[in-house]
Specification:
The complex is a heterodimer.
Chain A (H helix, E strand, L loop, with lengths): L3 H12 L5 H13 L1 H17 L11 H11 L13 H18 L4 H16 L1 H5 L1 H5 L34
Chain B lengths: L1 H9 L8 H5 L2 H9 L3 H23 L2 H17 L10 H27 L23 H17 L3 H12 L4 H8 L3 H18 L1 H4 L1 H8 L4
The chains are: A mainly alpha, B mainly alpha.
Amino acid sequence: MKTCEDISKQLIAYLDRRANSAERHEVEEHLAACSACHERAEDFRKLWGVLDEVPLVEPSLGFDARIRARIAEEPRRGWLGWLVPQPRLAFAMTLLLALSVWMANLPREGNAAVSDQQDFEAIKDLGVLENYDVLSKFDALSEVPVDAAPADQQAQPVNPASDQQPTTEE
Amino acid sequence: MEHAHTLQLYGTAGVRYNEEAMTRSDVQLMLDVKAGDEASFNLLLQKYRTPLVNFLYRMVRNRGTAEDLAQEVFLRVYRARKQYSPSAKFTTWLFRIATNLALNSLRDNRYRQMDVSIDAPVEEDVAPLQLPSRELRVDEKMIERDRSEFIRRAIATLPEKQRVAVLLHKYEEMDYGEIAKILECSESALKSLLFRAYETLRVQLAPLVSESVANRAREGRP
């Protein structure tokens, strides 16, 4: 047989007539054997009768008028309202935009290193390239393989200095 | 079903119901409100203002506050009409809003009182519950006069969750599943909660329930 504690979980549903037949049988079996629970069940029934004695209060006369007035004060969305975004959507979009701007401005360490390297490569020979004397004597350029030159230049000698300016030796 | 239930609960108190509100389901009325039909909102207002005000009054023990909170409930329903989807019973939604507002109001009031002075007297409509002396026979005349007030106070002394459970179970006659959803607990936990609440009330209202209960409590028997 179930204990008083077990029955306490089923007692309300039993008194409500919402217990299933198995539960009802268990509770009735216990109540028949346990006078304390039997008395408690009887008291609960009486208690519910006592609780029913509390009269209803009526809302005040102006209740409906007040709520209607408050509803009338609510902002209406006309056809122009569709152009105005919902507050939550507007907030989300603003947040997304701010996040994008912030992320775009984040320092990118890896890319910065590559960029520095490229800049260095571009300017490291600048002094040499600007020095015509050095450049005109730079025979090493003639050793550049023909394959590397553009197709329309392949028939010509690959010494840029030779057809631009006579050397001082001539 | 829901309408008949409401009629059964409040019909005897002389509350007038619009026939139209009784024939259309709450969900249908709310869907009509969503579509822009303000008359349907008025029908819902007519149908639920009394149950809501009474529920809130029993929760917060102040009639003015109860009416203000009931207004707020209806306003929130109206504001949420465009997002309404009939995924749960209308009453579950309605009383969930009401429960949350009532609990917030009780907590705010408590904090406000703590703010003023921890020694200040409790500013409620009524004095704290005074149980009848167990040494003296209960004054029948006093109980007759203040019987309702005595019961209201006893309910008000219950812990908040137990109070909500009893009000929804006893006065709104909601099923366990609906109350459990409002209180966000399991049905099993709800049944235990209800048992504890009624057990407390049984002792608190012993003079009204039966003299024998009072006698047993006096002797310290369960």
